[in-house]
Amino acid sequence: MLASSDYTxxxxxxxxxxxxxxGRLGLALQEEYMNHLREVQTRIGFQYIRGHGLFHDDIGxxxxxxxxxxxEVFYNFTYIDRIFDSFLAIGLxxxxxxxxxxxxxxxxxxxxxYWKGNITPPxxxxxxxxxxxxxxxxFIERYGFDEVVTWPIEVWNEPNLTNFWKDADQxxxxxxxxxxxxxxxxxxxxxxVGGPAICGGSDHWVDDFLTFCxxxxxxxxxxxxxxYTSKPPVKTADYYYQALEPPKDMLDQFTxxxxxxxAQGFKHLPFYITEFNTSYSxxxxxxxxxxxxxxxxxxxxxxxxSVDGFxxxxxxxxxxxxxxPKSLFHGGFGMLALHGIKKPTYHLYEFFSQLGDSELYxxxxxxxxxxxxxxxxxxxxxxxxxxxxxxERLIEFALANQSKAVFVQKERLTESDGNPWRTWQQLGxxxxxxxxQIERIKKTMMPKVETMQLAPGSVSVTHKLAxxxxxxxxxxxxxxxxxxxxxxxDSKITSY
Amino acid sequence: MLASSDYTxxxxxxxxxxxxxxGRLGLALQEEYMNHLREVQTRIGFQYIRGHGLFHDDIGxxxxxxxxxxxEVFYNFTYIDRIFDSFLAIGLxxxxxxxxxxxxxxxxxxxxxYWKGNITPPxxxxxxxxxxxxxxxxFIERYGFDEVVTWPIEVWNEPNLTNFWKDADQxxxxxxxxxxxxxxxxxxxxxxVGGPAICGGSDHWVDDFLTFCxxxxxxxxxxxxxxYTSKPPVKTADYYYQALEPPKDMLDQFTxxxxxxxAQGFKHLPFYITEFNTSYSxxxxxxxxxxxxxxxxxxxxxxxxSVDGFxxxxxxxxxxxxxxPKSLFHGGFGMLALHGIKKPTYHLYEFFSQLGDSELYxxxxxxxxxxxxxxxxxxxxxxxxxxxxxxERLIEFALANQSKAVFVQKERLTESDGNPWRTWQQLGxxxxxxxxQIERIKKTMMPKVETMQLAPGSVSVTHKLAxxxxxxxxxxxxxxxxxxxxxxxDSKITSY
Amino acid sequence: MLASSDYTxxxxxxxxxxxxxxGRLGLALQEEYMNHLREVQTRIGFQYIRGHGLFHDDIGxxxxxxxxxxxEVFYNFTYIDRIFDSFLAIGLxxxxxxxxxxxxxxxxxxxxxYWKGNITPPxxxxxxxxxxxxxxxxFIERYGFDEVVTWPIEVWNEPNLTNFWKDADQxxxxxxxxxxxxxxxxxxxxxxVGGPAICGGSDHWVDDFLTFCxxxxxxxxxxxxxxYTSKPPVKTADYYYQALEPPKDMLDQFTxxxxxxxAQGFKHLPFYITEFNTSYSxxxxxxxxxxxxxxxxxxxxxxxxSVDGFxxxxxxxxxxxxxxPKSLFHGGFGMLALHGIKKPTYHLYEFFSQLGDSELYxxxxxxxxxxxxxxxxxxxxxxxxxxxxxxERLIEFALANQSKAVFVQKERLTESDGNPWRTWQQLGxxxxxxxxQIERIKKTMMPKVETMQLAPGSVSVTHKLAxxxxxxxxxxxxxxxxxxxxxxxDSKITSY
Amino acid sequence: MLASSDYTxxxxxxxxxxxxxxGRLGLALQEEYMNHLREVQTRIGFQYIRGHGLFHDDIGxxxxxxxxxxxEVFYNFTYIDRIFDSFLAIGLxxxxxxxxxxxxxxxxxxxxxYWKGNITPPxxxxxxxxxxxxxxxxFIERYGFDEVVTWPIEVWNEPNLTNFWKDADQxxxxxxxxxxxxxxxxxxxxxxVGGPAICGGSDHWVDDFLTFCxxxxxxxxxxxxxxYTSKPPVKTADYYYQALEPPKDMLDQFTxxxxxxxAQGFKHLPFYITEFNTSYSxxxxxxxxxxxxxxxxxxxxxxxxSVDGFxxxxxxxxxxxxxxPKSLFHGGFGMLALHGIKKPTYHLYEFFSQLGDSELYxxxxxxxxxxxxxxxxxxxxxxxxxxxxxxERLIEFALANQSKAVFVQKERLTESDGNPWRTWQQLGxxxxxxxxQIERIKKTMMPKVETMQLAPGSVSVTHKLAxxxxxxxxxxxxxxxxxxxxxxxDSKITSY
Lengths: 496, 496, 496, 496
Known about the structure:
Chains A, B, C, D: One of its GO terms (molecular function) is hydrolase activity, hydrolyzing O-glycosyl compounds. Chains A, B, C, D: Pfam families: Glyco_hydro_39. Chains A, B, C, D: This is Xylan 1,4-beta-xylosidase. Chains A, B, C, D: Keywords: Glycosidase, Hydrolase. The structure is a homotetramer. Chain A has helices at about 30-45, 80-90, 125-145, 145-150, 170-185, 205-215, 245-265, 290-300, 345-355, 420-425, 435-440; strands spanning about 10, 20, 50, 60-65, 70-75, 95, 95-100, 110, 115-120, 155, 195-200, 220-230, 235, 240, 270-275, 310, 335, 340, 360, 365-370, 375-380, 395-400, 405-415, 450-455, 455-465, 470-475. Chain A folds into 2 domains: about 10-355, TIM Barrel (Alpha-Beta Barrel), CATH 3.20.20.80; about 360-480, Glycosyl hydrolase domain, family 39 (Immunoglobulin-like, Sandwich). By secondary structure, chain A is α/β, with parallel strands linked by helices. The longest helix of chain A has 19 residues, at about 125-145. In chain A, the strands form 7 sheets. Chain A has a 9-stranded parallel sheet with strand order 6-3-2-16-15-12-11-10-7. Chains A and B meet through strand 23, helix 10 and strand 24 of A and strand 23, helix 10 and strand 24 of B.
């Protein structure tokens, strides 16, 4: 058993809710998207939201219009204003990702995703710079400089991949970065610009990018990278199936990149993981399952030493990168499935939002925290990638010398609780569920809650974790008022 | 095991939601009261609402004002309009109970309840009749005759008790009834008037009242009576403790009264139970417990043959008959405790609202119904008034020759699920709980939901009921779409 | 002055709110769209909603997927279910318009609108028929046959125009209509199918279409046509400017088409105007102005003899046919501008929803109606297409022998009241207005309300209509309670 | 004309929204009350709320219960917690007024108001002190010390009147004050206690009270007084009618009391007007009229030099001091009449909330302020207590050297605009208005809004104020985007 002498109090860092990822920003015009975002924001609460497509043509900022045979540029802010108004109204700030290329500025035809984001460099770099400038100046006029200066500005997305940047041409990206960063700083030197938003597997870009910035004297205010942990996929008609690397693998990547940054002389540069998840595929069923939550518990608990902010990819299955969802559950990234159904990973985040301000202890299946009022809040999980049954994992920890009784509340995610994916399977995997089916699924989407009261004294809490269970355990000192009820005797109630 | 050959299909009667009881109508001005009522109405849905105090001075319809030394009557409908507007806006009609006596019309000082409803006959019967007339005429003007003609008008409350009617003077009540009924019918003969709203234990009033009506040619459109099942109380400083008669006792009373009514030649007179519950005391902890729900399951399932409409007393602990609630849980009648916390009896009613339109089978622990779409919905309960542990009760019933798989959903109320009273005890019975405590209690107020899929074929459902468990079991034929997913193979998901 | 002897009571027909037009259905996923629709539905209330794009790829019903080298068709109802769920939840039924052509079924490349609706016949007619069948069968499964049988099914949109149907090929349309109608009726003969949804200017199609149906024995359950009244445009970079034909011109078209239908032997065929407005251009500023409302007043009052249902094109400026709106006001069709700002035409419709059930009188600037409770409700308007000032138009009508005083309420739309377009001009025509500007504009979007009390007796109401004013005048008999206030003397109040 | 050289910029003080008065706190349990309060708080925004009845028996904090023949005190916080929870949830802090006397602590029978607040000293001072202590300690436990320390604690209400304090016994009040203040400070010396909450007409109490505090070394953290301006009433059956002293009279009282406080050596003591209005009677029709707003405009503009915070008595006609309201309009204090109808005084406050942070100029009918963004906001009013017509009052002020055009928006309250009382009269003064009548009245409750654009240059604004008109004039520099619309030509629109 873990004794209280094993605890070391330190301030808990809380990068888990730094930012939340979203499908392309144009989807934020949708009602279901906003309903999901309000739910997530109310119960969890993020600082930033980051997604692709700021300059995509469905938002349509960049327009060219013909006047008397002359082409004029027109910047249309109708939709982006509506979107950012709605984010700010619920306390979310944009984490700006500049991209992809507007149709009229593209240099060639390559696109990414079902929704065809153009991934090529600007045909006319000057027009790109003017677009960036006009857009930022508009935001400053509309929302005020004091607001916009708090929005990180990230240049492009995963330029190290040919899917996202034509030929993954590093020199071309550095050129774009330099032009963009200079344009941003010309507006106001206090605006924060960064990159290179690379995905894992090309970490020589860390050195390359920072070397470039130093050499060319290009401003950089933060370093961003993505992280997914899935092995090569088995692709079927409807799904990607992938095994996962162990959590340690992803944690090691964070440490390693942080060291690279430091070694380049950028010790004070914030390091943001602007996308992460288990699999990078929006049609991998793992996202709908319990194992997704138990895997990510390890990451979020243990990565805080090297990472300054996470952005989980993504809050909602209102998402179209692989096309319009073909079914209620379809392997989407969302914390929330369609119809606002909460997946286990949603609850993992909600559990994190309940943790205390101090950290007492952590290992690979337990995280003990304490609130200012003395409430102990523990997160326990039992990640396993084995097939079939595994042994329950016993956790046990002490509450030192309690003079009061303790109310213990366990919120449990298991295969049978807080797992709407399983209920959907039992209902025959309805692609387009009826209202009745949706309600039945929702009745099973919440964690199972178990409560008890432990007598005063040197109290310990025990819990057996099922395979991949994620459990939040809250231990609350009880101010017992029972004695204030005169002549109380429950045994006089029928059947008690 | 119950075989499908044991089923006999008949139309299910649904008197359970005929009406809902409420503390005095003046409380309907309150926001928490209305929040509770909207919740109940949204999830369960009643036709009528009935409570005391229409003529009490907190609503203040009857006023006397002095003008130049002369006393004039003034009818003030400011509050009752606000109240009835708010009821009708959520689809609830008033079941009018005429009483108690306004201060200015009382003939002596006797009152009932903390809120001091005056229980005496009118000092000036003519002024009472004018008050009744003015009030009904006002309702007709405001809401239309077509609406008001659907509101039953009940004369007084429990005149057979000295608490509620001075000296329980039967002759005086009959006089009041006659005057009132005549006044009502003089407005329009189609308005529905009835009584005598007696409680149990004085059923000679049935014959007396109907004989009186026949003899005196007094109109009567319905007969109303109350029913509580508790034995004499042990009174302590804060609570009443009472044992309960067996459910059969209450059911027999219904049958017996119905027979009395019929025997008097009133076979077509509707018979309403305008109040019922286990205990008649608003400070009996039984109302907060699971046993209250399991007891009433028997009543609501089996009383439908003799009763035309029930009015559960009451929907909410926003209630003041024994004073302002001294604690979150205090033995109040409410389906909903303060802060909108759902008690087991709330869920019992919500379960009833999910039942099908056809009845297939019933006994003393099982009620099988079927919806038009073929869904079988079973209510099972295991009432026991024994102290300590009792054996689980096994129920088992067939679903005949299913060609499809069956989705089974169990919604269980047990000591540890859907029982916020127990969580409150574990938290040390906080009288005035904090927001944090309220949220923790609410996390445990919902039934435990268990789901499974049964393979096609001759399917049977089995369930073991814990002591006093109430369980709703829904059996839904599954339209399985699994085969429409190409190359589906869950075993390719990590850990599955 | 109009005397009451001039009135002839008849039942008022109310085709004005038969249906409401909308931009393409895919926009219904958006939150601002739904907010506008809820506003319109709450205050006006339509039966149906009709728009383009049911089969457009943004909703994406028709999909082809590759499985092991074989192409399979997959129907994706994720988005259309969400859309129709949201319509039905607010009491709106779909008026189905079948079109345009899914990308994978197109026979060539021609498209219409910024959003590129493909206007070509199906490459494989059988696959079109299967798409229609699968879609309708899905709707029946989801919403029930009793619901879907009330949805008119219209085949395509404006096939008489080359913009909307390749080459405006009549034979090809008739072929599509026949195939579609036969497919619909094969599902259930009670489903209602119709067409040809032509616009004005090609009324030989009326005879051609009905002759075709008779000759080929093709089912037709209703006839649909559109109506716009604008003359050829002056096109500028941002706008279309057009003069309007007189209202009589449009009214004559309705009569004429009705006669054609009748002459073809289809006297009982309902005749729906499934689109109408002044101008057919979504960038014509007339839609933002007062004159749009005064023009349409004439149409809606006087067309009821020949038309069975109107569908105003459209309820909202959330609309993309000419691209993303470039400015708050931009000449869009919407009753509501962006940000929910109410234009004069919105109020015209809201006025219509207040009219009485009986018609008493109508001419070209006055429409007198009466409610069941005796309230007289008059709509008055003063349409003028002249530039510059015009004389006020005096209207005057009698209220016969009022025994009571009359409360008169005038709701006036003039250049300075209920005209947010003018305020926006005064604010400098901000393209992307700030919250502060939006609020200031909204403060001026409501009609000016003037009230007075007329003494009992033979009362007449007088009103001077400003140029293009639209005014609703409500005349309410007063039940005067003033005498019930004892010693009332307003002159004792300071300054009165 | 007022030239810009006449302006002197200073920081505007904003005591107008320091606090808002309310009927007894027990009414805060009501839904209509809370709806009104949310409206007021959303559109105006107050810091504190102050009302009577914290210790009244409808909230019922002080209870005595019998246990085995012994009387025990029980403090019941069920209702006050609900009330304060609901205030704090909308950003309102309690301004605690300690009173009146609980039934069980009263020393004799005297009461005030329809709701019978007992006005006598405590029978047992120690029990009073214990009640105060228990209540404050409970608030600190529930809401935290940091919160409660910001709540002023005022001892009793108007002890200088026999209506409110038995015999207006000054010595008895000082004794109560001392006991209470000592009790408060014994909990924590940082808690703020004050008094004596006197009404006008007894200002010798200022010296008496402060002298007492000094002499007896009794803590006092603020001085509170009330102010009403009405002359002796003409009382009729339903109303009080009263003439008003000129505004200067009330303003002089403030200055005079401030001087008294300073002269006693309490220069740094905050001086709060914890109640004020024109008339002190809740049945004086003046409160429903325009003159109430124009009178108070003078007070709120000009009193800021001597007063540190105002509490307008009261925000809502949900109020029972003179009984249940007998009619929609009845002379109640409320900014909002029943059904949420906005009176002119509501708008006056809403106008104040729009004023700028800097003051430029003030006189007896004009108040010029400027916002940080350069918007000039003027409040103009034309108070007159004369009967009959008075001349319009011309106001005219300069906007210095505007390089831009100016958008001017006037929000006008006149006899015919923003005056629902008049509409109600025209409707026959319905006591219990129907929904239809309420909606018609609401259509006339908003100010008339007039807008215009003034060309750039040295701009001046002119306005003619009708009798008792209150007008807010906002002057906004225009960023004109008109030239960005290509080929714009409104004259091409039909009829323009």
